[in-house]
Amino acid sequence: MADHRVYLELPETEIGRADATFKVKVDGKLIGTIHISHGAIEYQPNGWMKRNSIRKKWTEFDRLMKESK
């Protein structure tokens, strides 16, 4: 069974303009990074440049999660 671990790096400021970053690893290998900001959530698969991240505004993310239920 894969060992899933999620690492959190919080900036020292309130989330608003600065991202909170979650590094997601499986069996010790980085598979992606989640960036949470005031305006959106972004998923950056390992090896992708940040500008190519999958970005969803919070209302879009809410709809996506509800549809996947």
Radius of gyration: 13 Å
Question: How many β-strands, per DSSP?
Answer: 5
Number of domains: 1
Q: Specify the overall morphology.
A: globular
Largest sheet: 5 strands, antiparallel
Q: What is the beta-strand fraction?
A: 35-45%
- Helical content stands at 10-25%
Helical segment tally? 1
Spatial ordering of strands, largest sheet: 1-2-3-4-5
Unreliable spans are none
Which structural class fits the helix and strand makeup? mainly beta
Give the topology string: H per helix, E per strand. EEEEEH
Mean pLDDT: 86
What does this structure look like?
The protein is mainly β. The chain has one helix at 58-67, and strands at 4-9, 20-26, 29-36, 40-45, 54-57. The chain has a five-stranded antiparallel beta sheet. The two termini are 24 Å apart.
Report a brief summary of the structure.
This protein has 69 residues and is mainly beta. It is 14% helix and 45% strand.
Layout of helices and strands:
Elements: E1 4-9, E2 20-26, E3 29-36, E4 40-45, E5 54-57, H1 58-67
Antiparallel strand pairs: 1-2, 2-3, 3-4, 4-5
Question: What tags apply to this protein structure?
Answer:
single chain, 69 residues, mainly beta, five-stranded antiparallel sheet, 5 strands, 45% strand, globular
